[in-house]
Amino acid sequence: MMRTFGLGLFALALVSPLYSFAQEVGRPQYSIDMSYPYDYSSIPVYSQAHEAIYKHIDDNLPAHVSNLQRWLRQPSISAQDVGIDAMAQMLVDDFRAMGFQEAELVPTDGHPGVWGYLDSGAAKTLMVYMMYDVQPVNPEDWQSPPFAAELVDHATGKVIMARGATNQKGPQRAFLNALESILAVEGKLPVNLMITAEGEEELGSPHYPQIVDKYEDRLLTADGVIFPMNMQSPAGDLNLFLGVKGIAYWELEARGGSWGGPVTSEIHGSYKAALDSPVWRLIQALASLTSPDGNTALVPGFYDGIRGPTEEEQSLIAASLLNNDSTSALQEAFAIERWIDDAGPQQRVMELTYSPTLNIDGIYAGYTGEGVKTILPHTATAKMDSRLPVGIDPEEHMDKIRAYLDANGYSDIVMRRLSSYPAAQTSIQTPLVQAALGVSKKYAGTPAVNPRIAGSAPFYQFTQRLKLPMMPWGMGFGNGAHSPNEIMLIEPAKDSGAAGLADIEKAYVDFVYALSGE
Amino acid sequence: MMRTFGLGLFALALVSPLYSFAQEVGRPQYSIDMSYPYDYSSIPVYSQAHEAIYKHIDDNLPAHVSNLQRWLRQPSISAQDVGIDAMAQMLVDDFRAMGFQEAELVPTDGHPGVWGYLDSGAAKTLMVYMMYDVQPVNPEDWQSPPFAAELVDHATGKVIMARGATNQKGPQRAFLNALESILAVEGKLPVNLMITAEGEEELGSPHYPQIVDKYEDRLLTADGVIFPMNMQSPAGDLNLFLGVKGIAYWELEARGGSWGGPVTSEIHGSYKAALDSPVWRLIQALASLTSPDGNTALVPGFYDGIRGPTEEEQSLIAASLLNNDSTSALQEAFAIERWIDDAGPQQRVMELTYSPTLNIDGIYAGYTGEGVKTILPHTATAKMDSRLPVGIDPEEHMDKIRAYLDANGYSDIVMRRLSSYPAAQTSIQTPLVQAALGVSKKYAGTPAVNPRIAGSAPFYQFTQRLKLPMMPWGMGFGNGAHSPNEIMLIEPAKDSGAAGLADIEKAYVDFVYALSGE
C-alpha cells in the first residue's frame, strides 16, 4: 500500500490523528499505524559509476585536503566579527576560480552574504545553502589550535581539527571539491548551481532573508536545496531528517514597579517582610503556565493548530521504530531514568515530532554564588523557548502566552522576543530526497530517515518561502560543533565505517548526477 | 502608665495581639496600641563630666587616630585567610599593653578567637563582643587603597578610609582608646572587662560558640554585652535597636533523577518534548510554598509560635511611629511604589518586626547569558532565607518546609541548610540599655529606639545562651561596610551633626561609668 506514495498524492494529506489528552489538560497525544512501515527497498541503489571523476578525486586528495585547511585557517567568528570579510571574499574567489558566471558579495544589514551562480545549460538547478561563519573559541581548551586545522590522529582515524571542521566549512568545501573534479574531468556540471552563503548562521540567521530577497525570482526556479553536512556516525550509520521544528524564543522579566517590590536595585533581604519580590512574581507567573509536573501548558490555544502525522510521516516513523529506538542512545548518554509519563519509544518519538514544548533554557535572579548572601532582588529573568511542530505560527504562539499572562494579572512582566521561525517539512517522495537516498544506499546502506527532528533550523525559508524541497545531506563524520576540538574525519581507521574525504566527495558527485537524471 | 516598666515586670509579658489574617491564608497581622508611646523623658541625661579623661583624649587624639590606622593597615580578610593570625595577635598584644590580666588566642576549628580579661575589682562586669575580620576587597574600586587607612576629605568631614573602618575595627579600637584614657588618668576602669573577639564574623560566626564555650562560666557573671558601633547618621541622629530577627538560610536544588529529566548534564532544549525539566520542577515546588502574590507562606505551621508585641515593644513602636516613619527613607532610596498589601507605616513596621519571611535571595539554572541558547538544564537551584521573629526556632522552621515539600511529592528536591540562628531581644529597662540611653541623650539628643530590626545577627548567643542584655552602641558615623571606599568619620565638617573620634571616645568613657553606677 505504501507504494501509492510513489504518486506523491498522499504525502501531505492530513489524517485524523488518534489522540488522547495527557493528564487533565490538553496535551494532544498521537499514535500511529505501525502496519505500513516505509519500504526502503523501493528506492534503487544509485548504480552509475563516474570512474574518471572518482580517480581525479583520489589523485588530487592532498590538494582537496588543503582546500579544507585553507578555509579552516581563515577565522570567521560572526559573534566577534573576526575574519568575516576575508572569509566571504574567499568564497567569492573560489566561485570565480571554478568558473561561476556570477560570484559576488551580498550586502546585508549584518555580515555580507555570498551569491554564486554556475550555468551549466542543464535542465535542473540545484540550490546550495552554505554558512561561512563559525562559533567563538577558547584556544586554551583545544588540543590543537582551533585555526591551525592540523591533521591529527583520533579514535576514528585521521581527522582535521579546527573550528568549523564539521560545522560547516569542512563538508561545504568537500562539496566544492567534488564539483571541481567534475568540472576538471567533464568540463561542466550536470546541473545548474545556485549558492547562497551567509555569515550569520551562528547568530540565528537574522539577515539571511535579505540575501534571498535579492535573488528570490531566480531561486524560485531551482529544483531543491541541499545543505552539505557530515551525517554519518563513526560506525557509518546514516541518520537523515526531512524536517525541523520551528522555534519561538523569548525572555520573561519581572521587575519591581507599581505592583510592588524594590525598583532601582536589590535591597536587604530582611525587607521582604514588607516588600513584594520580583522573584516570587516571576515564579508564580511561570508556575501558572504549566501543569504541576511542568509538562503541559495551560495557555489557552497552546496546542491548537498542530498538523498531526501524515500517512508518509507515519510510515517513516513506523519503519524507524521497527528498526531501532533513536531515543535509547540519549537515555544512556544523559542517564535518563524516566521519560515524561513513562512514555515508551513510540510516544517519545511522537512527542518529539508533534508536541510544542514550553522549556526554560535558563533562569536567574539575585545572588547566585557560593554560600550566604541575603538580598531581595529587584529583577528576575527566565529565558524560554517553544519548539513548534508544523501548523503553529511562532508569533501567534508568543501572542497567546502574552495574552495569558495579561489575563492573569501579569501585564507588568516584560516579554522580550528574541527569535522565531516556523517548522519546515520536505517529503521523502521529492526527486531531491529520492536522489540523495539512492546515493546514500550506495555508500552507507539503508539510512534511517526521520520525518522531522525535535530541533530547529530556519529551513522554512526554503520550504515555505521558496516552496523547495530541502535537506541537509552528505556522507562523513564530524564532531564537536560549538565545542573545543571540533573535527571532521578525513581518513577513517580500519574499523570505522564512516566515509573519508574521498568517498564524501564521490557521494556528492553521484548526488548531482542522480538529481540531474543523467 | 509606662513607668510601670521601671519595675521590669511587664517587659517580656505576652499580650494578646490583635491579629487578622492576610488574604485567605494565615499571615498574622498585628496592630498596636498607640496610646502609650515610650516616654524618653523618663531617662535622665547622663550628667557627669570626666574632664580629666576628656582632656587626655583630646591631647592624645593623633595617637588615637594612629591606633585606628594600625589596626586598619593590618589586613584580616577571613574569607581569604589574609592577615588573620597577625590581626588576632595584634589584639592580644594591645590587651596586654593595656594591662589585661588575661589576653590570649583561643583556638577554634576555624580562625582563632581572642580572649581578654581586665579585673578592676569593680562590682559590675561589662562584656564586649568584637570581630577582627573584614570583608574582601577589590582594590581597583577604591579611591584610596583599602589597607592604606589614609585620612581623606569627605562630604561629612575628615574621614579614615579603609576596609574595616566602620565594620568594625574603627569603633572597636575607638572603644579601646577610651579605656586607655581612663586607665591613664584613673589607673583603673570602673567596671571589670571581658572581651571575646572572633575572626569569622563575615563568614557567619560559625565557630564563635567555641570561644564562648571556653569562658562560659565567667561570661555568665557579666552584666551585659556591648558591640561598639558607629550608629549616628551624618546629621547626628542616633538610631538604636534592641533586638534582631533570627535567620534560616538554605538552598533548594532540583536535579534530574528517578522522577525524570536529564541526570548527568544539560541536554538539547528540544528534548523537553519527551523529558521532564528540573527547572520547572523547582519552579512548581517553589510556587507551592506561597500564595499567588508570593507574600504568604502556605507551609503548615509557618506562622505558629510568633511571640507578638509586648507592651514594651508596643510603646517603643508607638513612640517611633509618632516621631517618624523609618521606612520612608527606604521608599525613596529604592523607588518603592507600593508596599505589600498597600501597608501603611504601622503595618510595615509590624511586618518587619513580627513576620517570618520567605525570601528568594537568588535563583539560577541553565543559560543565563545574552541572547539565545537552547538547553534543558539538568539542575536548578534557589537560595532562600527566612527572617524569624522571637518565638520561631530556625531548625524547626526548616523542618516544616522540608516536610511540606515531602508531602507534596518533592522529596527528591535537596534542601541544603547553610545557616541558622534564632532571634535576640533585650529590654529597654535593663541597666545596660538605660546607661547607654542616658549617655546617648548627652551626645545625640533623644535617640530613636527600635525594639527589633528586620535584619539578623547571632546575638542570641548573648541573650539566650548567656542570658545577658546586649546592644550595639556608640556615637559616630561610618559608611561602606561590604562596599568600596568604607569610611569612619574622624573630624566632622561644621554642618555635620555626627560625633568625631574624640566625642565617640568620650561617650564610651561616659558609658562605662554610667553602667558602673559610679
Automatic annotation (TrEMBL), chains A, B:
Keywords: Hydrolase, Metal-binding, Protease, Signal. Coiled coil: none annotated. It holds the Pfam family Peptidase_M20. Residues 266-409 form the Peptidase M20 dimerisation domain. Residues 1-22 form the signal peptide. InterPro entries: Cyt/Met_Dipeptidase, Peptidase_M20, Peptidase_M20_dimer. This is M20/M25/M40 family metallo-hydrolase. The lineage of its organism: Bacteria, Pseudomonadati, Pseudomonadota, Gammaproteobacteria, Cellvibrionales.
